[in-house]
Amino acid sequence: MNAITPLGWVFIVFLGAVILATNLSLLTALRKPPEKGQQPSPWKKVMNTARDPFGEEDGQWRQLAAQVQEFKKTAEEPGVVSTDRPED
User: Fold this and answer.
1) Is residue 33 part of a domain?
2) CA 17 from centroid of its chain's CA atoms
3) Rounded to whole angstroms, how far apart are CA atoms 54 and 61?
């Protein structure tokens, strides 16, 4: 079996330090609460997306439905002429 050269050990230690630093930075980012006015944590966004994958799109559909209902209410008011229905 071949022995590991000193340069190989340096590379192994460097790689271990990079992996350890990455994991520690992720852990501290998870534990630190967000400050006011700061973007929500990326992990929180991931979890919300995992719980409700189409939540953002559903919200946009609900908003569109509310706008359509509001438009229909204003179109049905007396004195408002609607161009989408033919006159009888």
Assistant:
1) no
2) 30
3) 10
* Prediction pTM value: 0.40
The set of residues, in sequence order, having a beta carbon less than 8 Å from that of 9 and lying 6+ positions away, is none
Compute CA distances 54 → 22, 47, 49, 88, whole Å. Answer: 31, 13, 7, 43
> Average of pLDDT values for 7-22?
97
End-to-end CA distance of the chain: 96
Q: How far apart are CA 28 and CA 46, in angstroms?
A: 17
Residue 59 lies in a domain: yes
> Which domain, by its residues, includes 67?
53-77
More confident residue, 58 or 45: 58
pLDDT of 62 reads 95
